[in-house]
Amino acid sequence: MPLNAPETELRAWIRLSLEPDLGADRVRLLLSVFGMPQDILTATTGSLARHLDPALAARLRQPPGPDIQAAIDQALDWLRADGHHLLTLADPHYPRALYALTDPPPILYAHGRLDLLDRPMLAIVGARHATADGERNAHAFARHLALQGWCVVSGLASGIDGAAHAGALDAGEAGGGTLAVLGTGIDRVYPAAHHALAHRIATHGLLLSEFPLGTPGLPFHFPRRNRIVAALSQGVLVVEAAARSGSLITARLAGELGREVFAIPGSIHSPLSRGCHALIRQGAKLVESGQDIVEELRQGALPGLRAAPPPVRGPGAEPTAPGAGPAAAPAAGAGPETGPETGSETAPETGPGIDPADDALLRRIGLDPVDLDTLGVDLDWPIDRLLGRLTLLEIAGRIERTADGRYRRRP
Questions:
Q1: By the 8 A CB rule, do 58 and 345 touch?
Q2: Which stretches are tagged as biased composition: Low complexity (predicted)?
Q3: I need a surface site. Which of 93, 128, 192, 296 has the fewest CB within 10 A?
């Protein structure tokens, strides 16, 4: 398909998304300060160093290395195929609901029907190792909601996710369709058993990914995927979930974003009912049919859907004051379940970039890497607060992010 923006601009967007150590939160900050991505790449090293590590600032002033250049060329080649799209923060098709995140992905790879992004969305999530009843419920709820005009969003995982996508597709052309947010590059399918399902979604629905082409399904990608699932949707339905299921974290993030949370009750003897029952005790709405959800959401508009997009200045615009853009980056969702990791006990720290409230966080993070989900559970902090403090501590040089997305203290 034709490129939907000048190639120079697209190359700049893709490069920023590929640069090591430059996360979505920092890209958004730089956009708020400098404007369009090509303006970031032509800014002086000194001006970039006010917001970035000096080494990273210097690297951005250089031409991309051969690996990044090859990845940019590959993305542009992929984009020229039918049904392939690249949505940037400045693109009118970019999902407005994602502006509610403080780290909206700078770019999204999309394959399929972009018109689904204009439809009301409802997420259905749950256990990967679901029961037969759970999968039947997910399929039936998804089909009913799709026939009512809702686009069903999920993560293409085994179990509940797959059943929800299939149910929405089985509503046919009259239905609201389905959108799968991937934890891999959009040219890969995980799990492999869902190749046929992914093909159906690409043909009749929409595949969406923030990850570069060729990215495999690594554990720390799934929490990032699920924050998008939660943000896109007006509500999240949890069908089955264990007591420590990642689906509960997805539901919590949805609640923090102002979305409705729904849960299907089950047997008190089933381990996969405990997560849903916990959500109901915490205020999630108990539902027994798809119509319960339709009636609950019929009157409400999703907070944040009409929010202004993150600042992206065009040529000639007045600059935004440095530091005006947010530097925090929330991310949560369902990855593989993890237990507590042991952090080292250390004395309180203070200094530039350190708030007294960070003491508990610094005590929890040791020299052994710890993942985001574990930190959230152990500290019981809201995701916005946790990622915001982690970002500032990383900028201050107190902690570092490992290659697999976990955090550890600098030795």
A1: no
A2: 314-353
A3: 192
User: Phi, psi at residue 166, to the nearest 5°?
Assistant: -65, -40
Considering the domain architecture, whether residues 257 and 363 belong to the same structural domain is answered as: no
Q: What is the pTM of this model?
A: 0.74
- The count of C-alpha atoms lying within 13 angstroms of the C-alpha of 361, restricted to the half-sphere facing its C-beta, is 27
**All residues at 6 or more sequence positions from 44 whose CB lies less than 8 Å from its CB, including other chains:** 61
**Are residues 232 and 371 located together in one domain of the fold?**
no
Strand pairing class (178-181; 399-401):
unpaired
**Assigned domain for 201 exists:** yes
Mark which of 280, 297, 314 sits at the end of a domain.
297
**16-19 CB contacts, 8 Å cutoff, 24+ apart:** 16/40, 16/41, 16/106, 17/105, 17/106, 17/107, 17/210, 17/212, 18/64, 18/68, 18/71, 18/72, 18/212, 19/56, 19/59, 19/60, 19/68
Residue bearing tokens 């093909």: 199
Please indicate, yes or no, whether residues 274 and 376 belong to a single structural domain of this protein: no
Q: Which domain CATH number covers 256?
A: 3.40.50.450
pLDDT tens digits along 16-47: 999 988 988 889 889 889 989 999 999 999 99
CA nearest neighbour of 223 among 134, 157, 130, 305: 157
Neighbours of 7 (CB within 10 A): 11
Contact between 191 and 102 under an 8 Å Cβ cutoff? The reply is no
Do 31 and 325 touch, CB atoms closer than 8 A?
A: yes
Q: Which of 120, 402, 100, 372 is nearest to 249 (CA)?
A: 372
Question: How far is CA 112 from each of CA 81, 100, 242, rounded to the nearest angstrom?
Answer: 11, 24, 33
Q: What residues make up the domain containing 240? A: 114-297
Verify cis geometry, omega within 30 degrees of 0, for the bond prior to 106: no
**For helices 246-256 and 221-232, what crossing angle results, to 10°?**
40
Min mean pLDDT across 36-40, 162-166, 197-201, 310-314 is at 310-314
